């Protein structure tokens, strides 16, 4: 009996071993595969079509490339082809944390869906911290360029003593930026040179972004593509009257240009926006250029370059304090047809001290806007947006009268 039990134990033990061997051999043939992310690599921007020749004054023959060339960019949320476009920012290293705020607004409200490039320009070298932080924030490529000295200095035809005297007089009158040399260089650069920088020559469209701006509503469509499809060349969100003390002779200089270059003046222009008396005097209305979406080929055209050079030799950037906003506005108002200029009511925007909050409650709700419509500047007496509507024969948006 004892022997029988012993044999049974051996048989049971042998069966258990066989079963264990079977499971071990079976499991060794199973392979676990993990899904891998299919993330597109960084690519160069589309440069199809004619590319303007580099400006001979742009001495940066080897502009620095983006530091995130090895960065795996996230896939764009919105499908479809992209335009040959970029954001562009003029900033210094000290502006880092203010431009970081602007980037987050633009990325969260728009660019995370489209992944457009971003070009940063500086009259000095960008430091590693600026590049590292901004690269981490932008969903597209970041590119960094240094402004040639020839574009950020007094041209040789400017009388330095006369310019210094003007700055002192403006300081005594407490005119904003009246005594600033760097502000004048900035205005001149934005008026006549940023679109000629080697990095910018690769693009056809630009969206200008400055430090400390805010976007209040979701933007769910490609603004660059919309501009192209609707044959627009310049756009704005805020317009207002310029400080007359800063541009006493700007309109005379513009009229002088028009008289000598009638071929550059559009037939269906926006003179009614610029003047109440058929061009004799200037309304001082301008599109606020700290926000612009525009066509770079227009700025690089002979018409615009001729206009800028005419103003530049008049000396008003230094003998007065001409801003790039009225310069761009007068150029667009005279040399573009009315229907080539667009007001983006749907882009909610803030730049101290003014707010553009889209008129229309349903739009604000649908696009998750967080601006206060009572702070909308559009229908304020110092705004020129109502004049733009009247110039173009447009009906003001429903509810505008409640925001006056």
Automatic annotation (TrEMBL):
InterPro entries, alphabetized: Glyco_trans_15 (IPR002685), Nucleotide-diphossugar_trans (IPR029044)
Signal sequence, start to end: 1-29
Pfam families, sorted: Glyco_transf_15 (PF01793)
Residues forming the catalytic site: 292 (nucleophile)
GO molecular function, one term: alpha-1,2-mannosyltransferase activity
Region (Disordered): 32-75
Ranges of compositional bias, category Polar residues: 32-44
Any GO BP annotation: protein N-linked glycosylation
Keywords: Glycosyltransferase, Signal, Transferase
GO cellular component, one term: Golgi apparatus
Family affiliation: Belongs to the glycosyltransferase 15 family.
Protein name as it appears in the record: Glycosyltransferase family 15 protein
Organism (species): Aaosphaeria arxii CBS 175.79
Biological classification of the source: Eukaryota, Fungi, Dikarya, Ascomycota, Pezizomycotina
């Amino acid at each position: 009996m004892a022997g029988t039990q012993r044999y049974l134990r051996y048989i049971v033990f042998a069966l258990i071993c066989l079963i264990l061997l079977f499971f071990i051999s079976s499991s060794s043939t199973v392979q676990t595969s993990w899904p891998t992310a299919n993330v597109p690599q960084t690519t160069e921007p589309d440069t199809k079509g004619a590319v303007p020749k580099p400006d001979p004054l742009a001495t940066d023959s080897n502009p620095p490339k983006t530091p995130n060339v090895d960065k795996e960019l996230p896939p764009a949320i919105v499908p479809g082809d992209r335009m040959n476009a970029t954001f562009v920012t003029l900033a210094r290293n000290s502006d880092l944390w203010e431009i970081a705020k602007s980037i987050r607004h633009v990325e969260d409200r728009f660019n995370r869906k489209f992944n457009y490039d971003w070009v940063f320009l500086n009259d000095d070298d960008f430091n590693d911290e600026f590049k590292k932080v901004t690269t981490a924030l932008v969903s597209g490529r970041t590119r960094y360029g240094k402004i040639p000295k020839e574009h950020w200095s007094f041209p040789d035809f400017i009388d330095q003593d006369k310019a210094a005297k003007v700055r002192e007089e403006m300081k005594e009158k407490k005119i904003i930026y009246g005594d600033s040399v760097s502000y004048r260089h900035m205005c001149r650069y934005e008026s006549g040179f940023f679109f000629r920088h080697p990095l910018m020559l690769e693009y056809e469209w630009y969206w200008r972004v400055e430090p400390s701006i805010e976007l209040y509503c979701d933007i769910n469509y490609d603004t660059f593509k919309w501009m192209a499809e609707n044959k627009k060349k310049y756009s704005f969100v805020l317009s207002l009257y310029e400080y007359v003390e800063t541009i006493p002779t700007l309109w005379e200089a513009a009229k002088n240009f028009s008289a000598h270059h009638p071929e550059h003046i559009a037939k269906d222009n926006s003179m009614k926006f610029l003047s109440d008396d058929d061009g004799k005097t200037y309304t001082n209305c301008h599109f606020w250029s700290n926000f612009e979406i525009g066509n770079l080929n227009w700025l690089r055209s002979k018409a615009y370059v001729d206009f800028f050079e005419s103003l530049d030799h008049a000396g008003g950037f230094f003998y007065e304090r001409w801003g790039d906003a009225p310069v761009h506005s007068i150029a667009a108002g005279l040399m573009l047809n009315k229907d080539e200029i667009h007001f983006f009511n749907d882009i909610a925007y803030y730049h101290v001290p003014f707010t553009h909050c889209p008129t229309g409650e349903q739009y604000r709700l649908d696009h998750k806007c967080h601006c206060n419509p009572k702070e909308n500047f559009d229908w304020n007496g110092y705004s020129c947006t109502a004049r733009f509507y009247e110039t173009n024969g447009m009906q003001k948006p429903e509810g505008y009268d409640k925001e006056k």
